[in-house]
Amino acid sequence: MLGDVRTYKGTIGTSVAKVFDMTVASTGLSEKVLKAEGVPCLSSVTHASSHAGYYPEAKPLTIKLIYSPEGKIYGAQMIGYDGVDTRIDMIAAILGMGGTIFDLEEVEHAYAPPFSSAKDPVNAAGFTAENIVRGLVKTVTWQDAATDPSAFHLDVRTRNEFSLGSIPGSVNVPVDELRENLDKIPKGRKIIVTCAAGLRGYLASRILTQNGYTDVWNLSGGYKTWSGATAPQGSNSGEDYVGSDDMVYKKGVAPAAQQSPDAIVLDACGLQCPGPIVRLKAAVDQMVEGKELVVFASDPGFARDARSWCALTGNTLVSLREEAGKITAVIRKNASQKEGVKVMNTSEGQTIIVFSDDLDKALAAFVLATGGAAAGKKVTMFFTFWGLSVIKDPKARGVKTDFMGKMFGMMLPKSSKKLGLSKINMGGMGAFMMRLRMKSKKIDALETMMKTARESGIELMACQMSMDVMGVPREALYDFVTIGGVATYLDAASKSGINLFI
């Protein structure tokens, strides 16, 4: 026999295509085909970034993975702006060799911040699938979640995230407060848990399951998938239309008037939520009525956040464009007294009691505070007992105190820079790693958050009674901290729609 003879092993159907600025790809069989053929299968949706988030120009990337109940890979679909072709090839190679989701967890890839994360999106898709295959969590698709009126929808995102959009009928209990609010979750109903992308929903599902809840389901892909899938497409909403320049415009406004030549420009690329909204609010506060602000952001959620923020504050979202993972929003400042403009009632405030001297809890307090301020709320942070350490001035010298004050001073952190973590502190190493991680992810340090809070009009108040008990004199605190008692706090709380204890 002349020549080489080989048996054709078949084709798994790997493909990739360019759709405007996006790349879409697939390999293997789709969930629709498998169900039509009666083949049992599972699927999961994960959202990630094309490379490390702290490196510039990271773009969103979404993977849908389909596999057998035992973990054998059947297929995958992917969409994003960068790195889609390489990721679909990774999955196709393993699928072609009859691999499983467990192989995806272990697949090795070339890593450097401009090209990937230490745990690649393909690895993350494998981890998520394993949790489902092992029975650690049950998932529900956005289609099933949207058509199940009998289910109890639990949204475990933060209150500020929830205020910017949610599944109709959802009840908001942030995951960090879930254990203390289990009495609000009915045990006799199917519970569908929602978070931003799925991770916090998984954690909340585990908490509920371990507390006796049996019919718990995590929304696959989270609110990001649900909101994208159910949002009006194109100009079908009747409110928007696409201009000749591919920008989305408001109905009744001429494209030529969408952006004034003297508009203010704000670059919020690289910032994560709520950073872009905080920067947006600060810029608008400094503008005069009628002035326009052009905002650039890379956070995928900013497009919807910008719409919701304008609706809450009464400002006008003139135009919104997404191109190659970069969002451009043009916002016009309106006068609060202008007839017909919906303006948030700023007397509805937000109060936060900061009782802890843990770095992670202090960070959470300031994130919630700045988010509330960005939404137009009057925010008061009330620091009491151990929380006083957060607002101690590290530059304070020669402060006189009594014996008990000196004893507490020796045992407690001297300032925010000395705070430890509530978990895995490891003698201060954990706090150091946390700050390093935040810096790499371009998340503001606690001290910067404190400065932002002041600039946002947030009142930082120290409890006078706690200061007396702890032996903390006024001179030991930052100059910008006000002093108040219980009555002062209760007055602020009585005007608040949200009152938090951290």
Count of helical regions: 16
Please compute the radius of gyration using only Cα atoms.
26 Å
At CATH level 3, the topology of the largest domain is Hypothetical Protein Ychn, Chain: A
β-sheet strand percentage? 15-25%
pLDDT averaged over residues: 82
* CATH architectural label of the largest domain: 3-Layer(aba) Sandwich
CATH class of the largest domain: Alpha Beta
The count of β-strands is: 21
What name goes with the CATH superfamily of the largest domain?
A: DsrEFH-like
Broad structural category: alpha/beta
The neighbouring-strand order within the major sheet is 11-12-15-16-14-13
Task: Outline the structure in words.
The protein has 502 residues and is an alpha/beta fold. It has 16 helices and 21 strands. The protein folds into 4 domains: 15-133, 3-Layer(bba) Sandwich (FAD/NAD(P)-binding domain); 139-230, Rhodanese-like domain (Oxidized Rhodanese, domain 1, 3-Layer(aba) Sandwich), CATH 3.40.250; 241-332, Translation Initiation Factor IF3, CATH 3.30.110; 349-501, Hypothetical Protein Ychn, Chain: A (3-Layer(aba) Sandwich), CATH 3.40.1260.10. Strands 11-12-15-16-14-13 form a 6-stranded mixed beta sheet, with helices on one face. Strands 1-2-5-4-3 form a 5-stranded antiparallel beta sheet, covered by helices on one side. Helix 9 packs across helix 11 and helix 11 runs parallel beside helix 14 (446-455). The termini are far apart. Mean pLDDT is 82; it is low at 241-258 and 337-347.
